[in-house]
Every structure is written in C-alpha cells, then in structure tokens.
Amino acid sequence: MLNPADTLFRDDLAAHLPAGTLRDPEPRHLEEPRGRWRGAGGLLALPRSTAEVATIVRAARAGRVGIVPLGGGTGLVGGQVMPEGPAPVILSLERMTAIRAVQAEENVLLAEAGATLAAVRAAAAAAGRRFPLSLASEGSATIGGCLAANAGGSGVLRWGNARDLCLGLEAVLADGSVWHGLKRLRKDNSGYDLRHLLIGSEGTLAIITAASLRLVAPPAAEGAAVFAVPGPAAALRLLALAEAEASGGVSAFELIAGQGMRFLAETMPEVRLPFAAPPDWAVLVDVGLPRGLDPAAALEAIYAAGAAAGLVQDGVVARSEAQRAAFWRMREAIPEANRRIGAVSNHDISVPLGAVAEFIARAAAAVAAIGDFRINAFGHVGDGNLHYNVFPLPGRTRADHEGQREAIKRAVHDVVHALGGSVSAEHGIGRWKIDDLERYGDPVKLAAMRAIKSALDPAGILNPGAVLRATQ
What CA–CA distance (Å, rounded) separates 94 from 212? Predict the structure, then answer.
C-alpha cells in the first residue's frame, strides 16, 4: 500500500474536496483509551457529506491506500488505531453530526454517523421518545462507531444490542459506491440483509455514514435499587425472580463486585457508595414500568421475595431520581477507578447465563495458579456479559506483571471457551483480539468471513488488520 502522505496522492485528492477537508492528524486521532498503543496516520480526512466520503474511498482504492474509519475513539480493542504497516488515511466522521429527521409517530430517528450517542438520545427525548442504547461514554461515542462495533451497554437485557436498534444504514463500500439502505421498515425480506452484515464489521466492509434508528416510548416511571447478594449464582436466581415480579419491566441488571466498590473508595472517594461496608457481591437493578405502577414498590417486592428465598442480604431502594442517578454514577465510575488502579489484564467476555457463576469460580482459580492478584468482575450479568479484570496487589503496579499478562488472558479465555462463551462480548475484535479469534473461532465461520472480506474489499483498504489479519 502507498503512503497517503505522498504529495501526489494528497494533492490529487485535495483537488476533488472542499478546502480544509484534508490535514495532518492530531495526537487525539492516533490514541486509544487504555494508552497501550499509538496508531500511525499519513493523512486526516474530515468529510462533511457522504459524497465526500465516497470521493475519499475511491481515491484510496485507486492508490491502494489504507483507510482507518474513526468515530469517537472510545473503542477498547484497537479498531481505531493502526500501529503497524503503511500509515493510512484516518477518515474521521466528526463533522457528519446531523440529526436528519425525527419521526416520533414512527419511532424512528435518522442520524449521521458522527452524531454522538448523547446527541441522539437528546434528540429522541425532545420528541418524547428514547433511544435506549446506554453507554457510559455516550458523550463521545458516535452512532457510526456504536454500530460498527455493535455496542452493547447496560440496556441490552431489555432493548438488545446496537444492531437491534437499527432499521437501516447508509454506507460507502470499498469501491466508493454508496448503499442507500436508510430504510424505516420493520419488515424487509428482500434478499441478504446487508445492514446486519455491516453492523459489527468494525469498518472492514464499508464505512457507515448514517443510520435509521429505532426509538421507544420511555417508561412512565423508573426506579433503581442496589441489593447485596450472597454471590453470582444468587444474583442470577434473583434476576429471574425480578423479571417475574416486575412483569418484564427490568431494564438493567448489573453485577458489582465488592472489589469494584473498594477501588472506588480508594481512588474516587467523591463517588457515593450505597453501603458503609461494601458486600462481596451486589446487583444494581433498574426498572421501567407503565403508568399506575410504583417502581419503589416493585423493587421492595423484589427485595422481600429475594430475602425470603435467601438471595438478598441487604438493600437500598432509590427514593428519588437523584438517588437513582447516584446508583448509576457508582456503576459507571467503576471503569475509571479500574484505570486509576491499573489492570494487568482486561477481559470483555460473555458466557451462557447459567454458566456465569461457574466461570467466575473457574477463572479465579486459573488466575490464582499464575500468581496473586485482585479481581474485579462486574458487568451486564443480565445478558451474560462480564468485564473480568485482573489487578496487581497493593504496592505493586501492572508493569510488575507485564510478563504475565498474556498467560492471564489465555487462562481466562480458555475458561470462557470451555463454557461455550465468547472472548469478545461487546467491544469487538479490533486488532488486539485477532489471535483470540483465530484460536477460539469456528474455522468455517472464519473462512466465510475471509470470503466476505475478499468479495467486498478485494484491495484490502478498509481498516486493514482489524478483525481479520491483513494479507495484502
């Protein structure tokens, strides 16, 4: 592949684009949140329209120049940075932020790929609706990035992943052609579903430029509670009980380890904790109910039934929206506290719900066989997705264990695979999990993925080296 910083390539492309579209990358375009890797970039492209994206892609294909699409840069698997190989064009969608339309009567919103999740949620709220994808990084995560990675978050239990909230896409393919798939249909069986093929492809098959998103009516009343539970197995039993008590109104069910609360107390004392002494395990339950039902009463009923069944040891029910927000502030601050402690190895995994408790026990034993560590297992246990992070003991740093990081990752992922789970639940494969995909992935699926990549991007210019190992 050529270097996009080449004067001839740059000058030729600039002649077909408005002034100011091309410039040199800034440090923020070459970084990823965990600070482990730094990408390269020969040229930054800042298009304002789908037509300009198509122009850039056509030029890159003709010159065999790689393109790394960039949304909000919040991805945690290196899909947005390319540290090896010829420096690519970094194609940032940050100028394509328009909310093209909100059709509340259809529960549909059309947004460009660079619109942040927060902007989309605000536009939906202004129309009396809700876009229920919920991420702590909503202020910077973009719709294009969320769809490219098929983001999950805390609302998957009730509303599904990003793909479940997308009705249609507009995208630029590797040859520069534009797929006008921005439909508002709930039913469309007219051939292969390109929408679902592109969602989760991490910019390797096409560049998403806009999306038609599904909205919902917000619940009439919402509430939350934090319950101390004996352990993960009890948490899963409590989930089933809660769903029955709330008649399907459970919006989120988050498992929180006592270690996570202790990290918060150590690094972010301003974050209010619900218990004076953190229990070993707790769950954050959020409910959204129809008009006429009281969330606090529903949560108290869950507490009573859970306590009678030996599933709940203590609990706090939010008495105001401010207290509910404080519970969520605690949950969403856990990743920042983790960063301040400094993890030796991070894992975004999923297992069948019935295997969650077994995974936690087996993974802890596998990690202990390598050395002495602290473990913070937390996450969206309602859909089987855990963030299983391993930390050094007090007085040590992650640098002291750098040589053990790969062994820890292998040990944890071996347990996940043995239980029929996935080593990438919601963050994608990017560049840092390619080895894992090749080790644990079904060979027939991998062959089909390579065939699809070859068919849609034969020159290999779209996000080279992400998801599948670059061969050109």
Answer: 18
Torsion of CA 144, 147, 151, 153, to 10 degrees: 80
Cα 429 from chain centroid? 11
**Where are the domains positioned within the chain?**
7-94, 99-214, 221-335, 342-418
Of 100, 139, 105, the residue nearest 119 (C-alpha) = 139
- CB of 332 within 8 A of CB of 260? no
Q: Are 61 and 174 in contact (CB under 8 A)?
A: yes
Element spanning 237, H or E: helix 232-245
User: Any residues with CB less than 8 A from the CB of 296 and at least 6 apart, and which?
Assistant: 223, 317, 318, 319
Q: What CA–CA distance (Å, rounded) separates 170 from 165?
A: 15
State the residue for tokens 């995974």.
Answer: 359
Name the token pair of 114. 């660079």
What's at 57, amino acid-wise? Answer: V
Look at the domain 342-418 and name its fold.
Alpha-Beta Plaits (3.30.70)
Around Cβ 454, how many Cβ atoms within 10 Å? 14
99-214 belongs to which CATH class?
alpha beta
Q: From the centroid of its chain, how far is CA 266?
A: 26
Q: Which residues pair with 101 in a beta bridge?
A: 110
Q: Indicate if 342-418 has the same CATH topology as 99-214.
A: no
pLDDT grade, residue 29 (50/70/90)?
Answer: confident
Residue 142 CB neighbour total at 10 angstroms: 31
Give CA–CA dist 434/50, Å, rounded. Answer: 30
> Are the C-beta atoms of residues 166 and 184 closer than 8 Å to each other?
no
Tokens of 286: 């959020």
For residue 15, the one-letter residue type is A
What dotted CATH number matches 221-335?
Answer: 3.30.70.2190
- CATH number of the domain located at residue range(s) 7-94 in this protein: 3.30.43.10
Radius of gyration of the chain (CA): 23
3-state SS assignment for residue 92:
strand
pLDDT in tens, 297-348: 999 999 999 999 999 999 999 999 999 999 999 999 999 999 999 999 999 9
Handedness of CA 146, 149, 259, 340 (dihedral sign): negative
Residue in 226, 355, 357, 364 with CA at minimum distance from that of residue 282: 226
What is the model's pTM?
0.92
Query: What backbone torsions phi and psi does residue 53 show, to the nearest 5 degrees?
Result: -60, -45
